[in-house]
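Annex B. Sample input.
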Amino acid sequence: MNKKIIILGAGISGLATAHWLKKAGFEIHILESKDEPGGSMETISKDGYTIDFGPNSGLETTPLISQLAEEVGIKSEMIYANEEANKRYIFKNDELHPLPTSPPAFIKTKLFSAKAKLRVMGEPFIGKSDDGYYQSIAQFVERRLGKEFLDYAIDPFVSGVFAGDPEKLSVKSAFPKLYRLEEVYGGLIKGMIKGAKERKQRNEESKQSARMFSFINGMQSFPQAIADKLGNVIEYNSSVNSIEKVLEGYKISYSVDGITKETTADIVLSTLPVFKAAEYFSSFENKFNEHADKIFYPPVLVLYLGYKREQIKRDLDGFGFLIPSKMKKNFLGAIWSSTIFPNRAPEDYCAFTLFVGGARKPNLFDEDINTIINRSIKEFSEIMNTQGEPVLIEYKKWHKAIPQYNLGYIEHENYFNEFELNFPGIFLSGNYRGGISVGDCVKNSELAANKIINFAS
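Annex B, continued. Sample output.
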């Protein structure tokens, strides 16, 4: 176990992998450009509000999440979503419609026409596609469930999760479990029934049934607890200058507060966003840069609003709402943050998180930020029937938010596998490989750790 491992990035992917590796007895050194852990998990507290500017929650799709929380001493702070958060709304024709979650609710809903409902019920009779790898989620859903279901269920969902465009996202790469239902079982409804047995055997939960979790003081508590448990192995404010192959492994040059340092490692694990990783690994092989350039990260504005409860003239009885692109609004949807989890707003106040931009608006930040904010608040106020202005406005600009697993992404996935084979001791991880969710990142952290352990043994 005398192998030295350098990990680039102290987000959830890097920290969770470091935790498993340290448990296995490896020497770890983490370089992080920011002055705190968490990566895109960023939480602030202000005036009694707990504000998540990155992921606001996770789905407990793997037992590794609970295990990791237990091992780093934060399990007691783990909280689960209020049951009311199970209700999700879709905005259509100036009205919020609850998304149906049962057959009776689906039959009664006004969200879909009678024709659309019949089309969905015919899904078990639709055959398999011959072109799964190069099929968008829009093509897949329209073929299996119809155009109306795509427009008013999947389109807003894709915007809410990926901030993406369903016409461009690959069903195989972005939604592998959905694709697998057709590939293995021949259809979605058949697959959901039969696949439940498989998940039970693997001790996994589907994203539909997994419990939503956070932490009493916000999501950044999770990476912070892992970092605290790891001890003095993270070097913050570290700017990597270069990585090069040397006889004894890999030499990393980096700067901390203007001072240049060098270190050598047997193994380098990069959990940086792929566009950042390309700055270092393109010198190994220019093809890396070619692939990284083709992976789109759209801009997203996270807008957090606080109101007095009396200003909101409707029940806050759900997770929030999503907006189909057909509705032509300027934001993607809103989460009713203080309904979902406690400690998100002071007593008698409520809090909302709005998401603006995404793949629908690739040039979002070309416009004045105050114009964007004011327009979004105006539209939100009209939808929610609010009275008066918000008492708190906070925001975060993500110029490159979420990697888009667009059509042809399989070529990038194959290339990154090839790159690791060509340069033994270099490992690539993060949310551009294996899924973007918190659950995906934690699950993949164990896979990355096991690959490194096998390589080192």
